[in-house]
Amino acid sequence: MPEPTKKDDGQPEVAPDSSDVPSENSVTSKEAKVATKDTEAKVTEAEAEAAVPTPAAEPPQPQPVVIVVTELEPVEGEVTDPQPIVTEPVENGHSEPEQTQPERSVQVIEVKEEEPSSSKTHDKDDDVTASTPSPPPPAEDGSTPKKLSIDLPNDSDPESTRGRKDSVWSLGDGQPPEEIDKQTENPPLSTLLIEKPQSGSITVGGDITFIAKVEAKDLLRKPTVKWFKGKWMDLASKTGKHLQLKESFERLSKIHTFEMHIIKAKENYAGNYRCEVTYKDKFDSCSFDLEVKEVPEVSQSIDIRSAFKRSSEGQDDAGELDFSGLLKHREVKQEETPEVDVWEILKNARPDEYEKIAFTYGITDLRGLLKRLKKTKKEEKKSEAFAKRLEPAYQVDKGGKIRLIVDLADPTVELKWYKNGQEIRPTPKFIFEHKGTQRIMVINNCQMSDDAAYSVTAGEEKCTTELFVKELPVNIVKELEPVKTTVNERIELECEVSEEGAKVKWMKNGVEVPTGVRSRYRVKSEGTKHWLIIDDASKDDTGTYSLMATGGTSQAHVQVDLKPLKVLMDLQSVTVLLGQPLKLNCEIYPGNVPGRWYKNGQLVQPNDRISITHKTKNHSLDVESSTIHDAGDYTFVPEGYTQTLSAKVHIIDPPRVHLEALNVQDNTVTIVAGNKLRLEIPISGEPAPRVVWMKGERVILDTGSRVHAETFADHTCLTIDITEREDTGNYKIVLQNEAGEDTASVKVKVVDIPDPPEAPLVTEVGGDWCTMTWEPPRYDGGSPILGYFIERKKKQSSRWMRLNFDLCKETTFEPKKMIEGVPYEVRIFAVNAIGVSKPSEPSKPFIPLAVTSEPTMLVVDDVTDTTVTMKWRPPDTIGAAGLDGYQIEYCIEGTDDWIVANKELTEKTKYTITGLPVEAKILVRVKAINAAGASQPRTTQHSILVKEVIEPPKIRIPRHLKQTYIRKVGEVVNLVVPFVGKPRPKVTWLKEGQPIDPTISIRNSDCDSIMFIRKAERKHSGKYELSVQVENHIDTAMLDIQIVDLPGPPQAVKIEEIWGNNVALDWSPPKDSGNAPITGYTIQKADKKTMEWYTCVEHYHRTCITISDLVVGNEYFFRIYSENMVGLSEDATATKDSALIVKEGLHLKNPEYNDRDFTEPPRFTQPLINTFAIAGYNATLNCSVRANPRPKVVWMKNKITIIDDPRYRMFHNQGVCTLEIRKPSPFDGGVYTCKAVNDLGEAQVDCKLEVKVITQE
């Protein structure tokens, strides 16, 4: 059997075995490989046709299913459970060999699972064979794969109905297989798609992904992509558990990627699909096919309990059939259980015993087991030759013995045994026994080669079975041992396992060791021992080696080092002048060791100039005439040894500066400032000289930002990115190396525009002009200043305006024609022969302004012993600069020293000058100040004598306080009483000769006094006296304050007399009048029956009244409210007795009357009327009903009773029924019914309501 080969992705692959000979049961196969995230499955399908054609009219006959099960060697780091490989059925009962068909491969499609779980999950009712895990390779001994033939009954359901009926979504009917194999025509060139989805094939339960890519370089936005099945089914609405659509965008490559994931495919997912891409007026589409293959079910008779245990309790795949339980685990040891044929027990049991049997033998998936049992049950065909046939399958451990027994109906019939179609002859391995009618074949020492299909023929009849040989895990008995050795030595790794001839795998650093003919590795095995041999070890053989067996892994580390070397004379580093010979030599032991010379890691080869010699222990390298390129690190490497010999070779040459390459006069370079200067000066010298650029005593570094020096192999460079005037000067170059030193100088002259002048000064400002001056720039750029340009702009603007087009030779200028009140800025440009300088800094903002006119009407307002108060009017003319304030100055009469009275400007037109000497005479003047300066002063015409004048006090009572000041209780009282008098008067308040209440706040000032009461009370009423006193002068005033409140109720209200329909009432005024006169009374009456009060008279002034026009027979009560200017009293006083109105002189005789029956059924006296309502405005429906007793009213809309609807309100008062519809909408239109029901009957009326919607035009 061929050995497993490796694929590029690290997964094992089994090469086809050309030595297999097709037998009578052999079938041809096609292989399809599906790579998933968890497993890699290889499915073999049998495609065989019957040797004898069957007519189409005959119904299909039951056929056996051939199941091929092989084992795959595990990959390091994981346990691979062997899984069955299912083939399609072949016709039963024909032993003739069939012509094999050639293999054909199916495209491999990689599927990425979206779920993070490592194990695939399936629906609970899905078929067992919906997903086929990775199959193992065939056995090593070259025998054919083992086969299990089981006759399954022909189900009545067609094959197309075997899929699940509870699918989440359906993709429609699948495409016929013959259409899948057809070659599609070449589609037209795509305008959008750069990668199209490709057709694919998967098994039922598998996953697959289709990918489409669109290039987005010429697209402004994301294109629109749609996925279809067939011609019309849009898959965007089918996304869910089995279908996912994803989009992504790679910004670097600018490619849109669209993916369609089909998860756990079903049979009806097969068919033709289409992908459409649209972008504006562009369109592109692509069709592709999906083939879903159904895998026949697997029926096992071996270890049936483990097959029908749930794969994982509580997991997503709980309820799935886990066929890994049928196969051998590598690491987990199975518990030994007695061999019980549960399958036979279930076949022979009654249905009511299934659950008990499943509980007894640990079968948890009873539903799946019964489904399989139903499919596998069939009627036993009666055989004429066999009384008892072979079992469908047998199982035996490797190395064990198995007995195959048949019972013949006729013992004389000739019997033949076959293995995979080949007749079996008696040997020590195969022993035939006869016991009566029983015929027994004993197979001794079963090996993996005995795992095959066996059959026995008796005359024309034949029965078959499958033998499964269970291979025990191979354990490691003796572990590998670590090895440490040197190169060219032999390495031998030994390991012992528990079984002879066991198949093992050797790995190095996790990768399988190649053991081919040309490989450096040799593998040897003897009995249970295995060796890995490396004859000539190298340093690359260092690593971790491991041996993998089915029962475990053993590993050991191998270390290969170089051999030590004895150096008699080491290499010596040398320094050689350029052009001189160079010689390197060394001596090592042993002398027969060859070696190689390396320079800077490169192998040195001998030539006309270089010679390499080896004489016994001496190794030498000679160079006739050294060059610059001969310098470097030389290394001598003896072959096979760890030690190397190294030396450095230096080639030196005196340095030199080649200034003649500049080609400038006097080595002077002139450049305009702002340009880039790059001086490249050739140099020479070996080793490369150390170059230093200097300007004066300052060294120019190569790390400078603007000025920096760079040195290369053959030249040095001085770079000034943006030259400035400071760069002018002599630059010195110094070269140094081991061979000597050299210097040179270069002069650099930088010519520039002048510096900007300083910011100009505005010395004088007028209404529309100013005068400005400035200083010449400090640096003229190496050329005399020719003149200046002047610009100005408004401060809030960003546009400068040139004021002179001819150069101004002077340093003064007078701009004109400016707008008064607008702030301006000016700046200067200096000009020389090179150009115009940068602008100067703007001047301080200035405003062309004019001063105001002088203040007017300056007069004396007040004079004291030390102060004089002046007041005046604003100036008549105020310019655009406005008015900032006033400045007051004074001087003593007879002097010219004007003293500023106010340190800061005052905006008021009144000011008091303080600190004046008593009885001094002063003159006062006032100036108006603005941004333009001070105006002309306004001066008093005569001197002012500083002496206080006494002014008698005078109270100026406001008009509204000259009469009684009335306020209600709780209101605020705020009285302001102004007065005059000098000096400041003394103010005193009294209430009726006594100090005022502390709750009253008094605040006095120079000119008024304020009385404030936050919440007035009646105790605050009274006469208040205000006195103002200045020395012996006193002035007084009286204020009358009245705080009023509601009055109390009248007293002693009584009925004086009753006559006819008249009643005379009398009462007394209230005790509390509310501190205000009683303005009247309000009299009310109430009938004793209803006690509803009605007003008879209002604003009545007297304390007695006669109430007339009373109703005869009624009994009345009366009550009276008192009233003042505040209002009615809070309470009223009522009469204690009532007044009965009777008719005088008549005696009432009560006649006898028969009781009248007032009961009547409901009757609508006013029906409902058809109504139009406006949407959004409340609508009402009204009707009136007459009934006794009072009826129950029910409202209905379209014959449906309206109950607890917040949009409706229903009223019923005095027989009037009202339905209010709140903000109706067109939905509220319809037929409304009002129904009245009582014990005597019922009645109803209808109307139609139409709701109109008003549209806004």
Low-confidence stretches: 1-190, 298-302, 306-337
- Determine the mean pLDDT: 79
What is the number of strand segments?
93
Shape: flat
Alpha-carbon Rg, integer: 62 Å
Kindly name the structural category.
Answer: mainly beta
Terminus-to-terminus distance: 92 Å
Number of helices: 5
Proportion of residues in helical segments: under 10%
Main β-sheet: number of strands, strand sense, barrel status? 8 strands, mixed
- Note the beta-strand portion: 35-45%
GO molecular function: actin binding
GO biological process, one term: cell adhesion
Subunit structure: Interacts with USP25 (isoform USP25m only); the interaction prevents proteasomal degradation of MYBPC1.
Pfam family, one: fn3
Question: What does this 3D model show about the protein?
Answer:
This protein has 1257 residues and is mostly beta strands. Helices cover 3% and strands 44% of the residues. Strands 37, 39, 40, 43, 44, 46, 49 and 50 form an 8-stranded mixed sheet that branches. Strands 61, 62, 64, 65, 66 and 67 form a 6-stranded antiparallel sheet that branches. The chain has a 5-stranded mixed sheet with strand order 10-17-16-12-13, with no helix packed on it. It starts with a strand and ends in a 5-residue tail after the last strand. Residues 1-190, 298-302 and 306-337 have low confidence and may be disordered.
